[in-house]
Amino acid sequence: MEFFHNVWLFDCRKYMNFQKQIFFLITIIFIFQSSLFSKENYTLKDSIPLKDSTLQVSGKEVVITGDSKKKMGGLSSGKISFNPSAVSTLPSVMGNTDLLKLLELTPGVQNSGDANTNMYIRGGDQGQNLLLYNNVPLYTPGHLLGFFPLFNSDHISLLELHKTGINARYGGRLSSVIDVRTKSGLPEQVSVKGNVGLLSSQATLQLPVGEKFGLYLSGRKTYIELLMQPLLDATVNNNAKNRVENTDYNFYDTNITLIGELSQNNRIIIDAFFGEDNFNIADNNFLLNGLLKWENRSLSAQWDTRMGETQFSQQIYTSEYRNMLSSNQAEMKIDLTSKIQDVGYKNKFLFRLKNIFLETGLQYAFHQVTPQTYEMVNAGQRYNTSNPSTLNAHDAGLYMSSNVSFTSKLTAEMGLRYNLFIQDKSFNSINPRVALRYRLNETSVLRAAYSRQNQYLILLTPSSIGIPTDFWTTASKKIPPQSGDEFSAGYFQSFLNDAFDISAEIFYRNMNHVTEYSQNFITQQINSYTENVLNGTGKAYGLELIVKKNYDRFTGWVSYTLGRSEREFDGINEGRIFPAKFDRRHDLSFVSSYTLNNQWDVSVVYVYATGNAYTLPSSWYFINSAPVKEYGDYNAARMPNYNRMDLSVNYWCKKDNGINFSIYNVFMVNNPVYIFLNVEQDKETGNVKVAVKRKKLNTIIPSISWKFKF
Amino acid sequence: MKNLLYFFMLNLFLWNLLSCNDEKNIDYVEYIPKIAVEGWIENGTPAIVMLSWTAPFEQMMDTAFLLEHVIRSAKVSVSDGEQTEILTLGLNNNYLPPYIYYGTYLKGQPGKSYSLKIEYRDGIISAETYIPQPVALEKFWFEKTSPVDTTGYIHISFFNTSDLYYQIATRVDKEETVFTPGLYGNINSSLFEKNELISIQVNKGPVIFPKMNFATHFVTGNTVFLKFRTQPKHGYDFYTSWQNEVLNTQNPIFPANTSLKSNISGGIGIWCGYGTYNYRIETK
After folding, report:
1. Domain ranges of chain B
2. Does domain B139-253+274-282 fall into CATH 2.60.40?
3. Does B19 touch chain A (CB under 8 A)?
């Protein structure tokens, strides 16, 4: 209630006049959309079914995104899509297929390494990807350290990555859009699908409710806390001096999707997603005892209706992400919490004017963001330095996109998006988007795209690894909004009757007001996190290649990206250009699957990538009789090249029932999560020596799980 | 069958490629030697300055190697604007590095500014600081953690009369050779009401030399020397970053990966003035 109360107060007190204009505009647009919808001028020879909420219109061709036997689709249009059922045979940690991690095996998506849940796409930062779960934005991409996928793959029907020529319906992020869709058709019969593993189990219930309704209910729970300490002892604690003890981790998540096919032309989808992670850690070396907790919640209601070939879709939603770190370091207790909560409305209207397919839509979200509440208690003295407290922001977008066929060979997807963002200052922007496709012949396509993006929600990252202590804030007077332009051009060729696909693409992206964040927690003076935010510019460019084999017993792909991602900040390295943390010169992935017979299949994944950039000390000296380090240029050092091989074997007793045996990192390659140089003093001799320390998480992780469907 | 052959051949090729690549080397950053300065001046005492070259990361440092990096031939002078004193070098094994430039007659006075000038190998290194008015403690006492325990904490109280920053530094007699800022012992006066009576617990700071000790408590039966200091902002910034470096260098959640915040022009380190009251506490 407080949230809605704040929405109302914020509107009324500060922006009454402006709000009136906005709401007036929204009403006009809504009436315009409705009037178009009421016309019956548009007919469709072959009715478009409502089964799938994604309708891609490409010239005269209408493509319904749906089930496919291809593991990966969408290459000809520059998109990448995964069908969970088709990729379920690929290797997975703990037996759970991680669709988001699979994206890292595709061109343009940097491998994030071990212990990292973040996504880095085409040289962008982790906060520059829009993750949509049934059109609802989610603000964290994973469970702890990447061990478990964020989504229960049995509940998902499709995952799509848009990184080039992004449709105008998407806005608010510079890098990419990851669009995840749950099941959208009515279940035909009662069934239970899932898997039981050593560390976690999951199940999905499909339940028809009458003739017009259907329910999908998924739940997942880990019991990793039983094995966490032995696992750490075998990995992180291999050096007895740096033991991590008293560690406890657990999470659960639940997905609920209710579908109602009210009539042939009307459908409602009510969807909910709840997830919570708890992680306790104690490290006696650094007097550190911490509890890390984070939660994702989303709830949405969507109504799709259709008249002829005209479709109208509306959705209201709320989404919330919060994280909390409670840390006791020595006698100091630090509580850090952050939260972002959205209430939003979206609509989408698809229609045709003569030969032009058009889509227009209106999107509005009210963000309530608490970037970082910092409370410190030292020996009974409490310092509450939460400043600023909660930020309220209005975020509106209005767009129109169209698919035009200029000739039988040349088609274009063009769009225009208007963004309006109001926090302590109003920002607005216009984003043109265009994606051209030229069909050379039946099997090859040339494509080129340009898009401009603006980003008003900004992720600040104090951690060096993918631990969810990152927090969101809004563009404001102190933190300018980010903007970027991207250009790309590519070639797609299919040959041997669609058995093989080849795609090559070059891209260039510039980014303005990208951020770096550095925070010292040994101080009571954290009056404002904004003081720790540095702003600069960035650019990324590269070449992406993929060769894919689609059918037969042997399927898979080889993906290679040659890329660079650079940053330039006045306050870093004296203004010189430096590499972004996830700048990868080379990123190679190889995915292969072989089906021996109806019972046995085997899959192998290889990953090879240039190491992350990081900051390493260049020398050291004494202060207060303690050795301290003088650091070199920011991100001037490189982690060792990352490589890994995963193996998976499935034995199917019958369809959807079998046993999966996976091995993550078969060769036990020591891919460090981070490296540091430690200066130590020998207690006996007094000699000081420098020790290279590598913290790694995963050496080899075998897992076995039983997959079932009743 | 042909597919199976392709599958195995490709995987065998990559298997070999990967299995050869397990050895990994650290990508060192180029060593650029810098002159590190640690210097201070307190009210009522002359200046103390230590100079050394920063050391590369490639080799173990023994005593001989350490001495190679100490700068013993610099001309170090301190001035209050009216008088200038050239400091003289002396050996002091209580400190690392063990050579110290001492002042003798130019003693610190609250409210005055002091400039440091180091002339070495045709180069000049300089820094400015000032000594704030010291603030006296109202009260201090030792409190055991529990009646049957041998550990406890020192508590202090004082009126917040300074507009600047406080620092609490302690040295346990016969165990420690230098004063170490207490853990979270750098305090910003602006976080408290003006003239408010502040009572806080003193946490012992991380000690590396001569014996590593990260314990924050004191032990009964010790004599603890305590300096309650006022310091300018550059001292506060430097010592908070120093503690962050010492404590969080291996912390992946909040990593320390930036150099200490220095106020030295032409070098790195700190030149700081303190307004100090000294106390002796028996932890009985």
Report:
1. 35-130, 139-253+274-282
2. yes
3. yes
Residue with token string 């890098």: A175
Which is nearest to B23 in space by CA: A640, A497, A272? A640
Q: Which residues of chain A neighbour B153 with C-beta distances below 8 Å?
A: 331, 379
Predicted confidence (pLDDT) per residue in A394-432, tens digit: 999 999 999 988 888 999 999 999 999 999 899 999 999
Contacting residues of A for B61, CB less than 8 Å apart: 687-689
This model of the complex carries an ipTM of 0.90
**pLDDT at position B204, please?**
86
Whether residue A93 lies inside any domain: the answer is yes
- A560/B contact by beta carbon, under 8 A: no
CB contact under 8 A, A524 and B181: no
Which residues contact residue A461 at a Cβ distance below 8 angstroms, ignoring those fewer than 6 apart? A125, A126, A127, A470, A517
- Higher pLDDT: B171 or A677? It is B171
Q: Which residues of A touch B55 (CB under 8 A)?
A: 619-621
Question: Is A212 near chain B, with CB under 8 Å?
Answer: no
Give yes or no for a contact between A506 and A526, defined as CB atoms under 8 angstroms apart.
Answer: no
Same fold, B35-130 and B139-253+274-282: yes
Q: Which residues of B are less than 8 Å from A520 in CB distance?
A: 240-241, 244, 256
A17 inside domain: no
Q: At a CB cut-off of 8 Å and minimum separation 6, what does A225 contact?
A: A248, A249, A250
The pLDDT value given to residue A330: 58
Span of A132-141, B51-60, B122-131 with lowest mean pLDDT: B51-60
Terminal Cα-to-Cα distance of chain B (whole angstroms): 85
CB A587 within 8 A of CB A606: no
Q: Does A597 touch chain B (CB under 8 A)?
A: no
Residue among B3, B63, B212 minimizing CB distance to A552: B3
Question: Do residue B258 and residue A519 have CB atoms under 8 angstroms apart?
Answer: no
Q: Is the pTM of this model over 0.90?
A: no
* Number of domains forming the structure of chain A: 1
Is residue A73 within 8 Å of residue A87, measured between CB atoms?
Answer: no
Mutation test of the interface with chain A: which of B24, B68, B158, B179, choosing the one with the most A Cβ atoms within 10 A? Answer: B24
A463 and B245 in contact by Cβ < 8 A? no
- In the prediction, which pLDDT does A118 show? 80
Q: Which pLDDT value is given to residue A49?
A: 40
Write the class of the CATH domain B35-130.
mainly beta
Suggest the residue from A236, A523, A600 to mutate for an interface test with chain B (most B CBs closer than 10 A).
Answer: A523
Q: What pLDDT score does B191 carry?
A: 81
What is the CATH number for A61? Answer: 2.40.170.20
More confident residue, B154 or B58: B154
Half-sphere exposure of B277 (CA within 13 A, CB side): 14
Q: In sequence order, which residues have a C-beta less than 8 Å from that of residue B176 and are 6 or more positions away?
A: B207, B210
Sort out which chain B residues have CB atoms less than 8 A from A285's CB and list them.
Answer: 214, 250
Residues in chain A with pLDDT values less than 50: 1-16, 18-19, 38-67, 240, 242
| Contacts with B18 from chain A: Cβ below 8 Å | 606, 608, 643, 645, 667, 669
pLDDT of residue A300: 96
Would A13 be classed as within a structural domain? no
Tokens 């478009």: give the residue.
A48
Q: Quote the pLDDT of residue A488.
A: 95
B186 vs A contacts (CB less than 8 Å): 523
Q: For B224-283, how does the pLDDT look when each residue is reduced to its tens digit (9 = 90+)?
A: 999 999 999 999 999 988 888 877 776 666 777 788 999 999 999 999 999 999 999 998
Is B207 at the interface with chain A, CB within 8 A? Answer: yes
In this structure, are residues A434 and A449 in contact, taking their beta carbons and an 8 Å threshold? Answer: yes
Confidence of residue B212 (pLDDT cuts 50, 70, 90): confident
User: How far apart (Å, rounded) are the C-alpha atoms in residues A368 and A365?
Assistant: 10
- Domain of A647 in residue numbering reads as 39-709
Residue A7 domain-assigned (yes or no): no
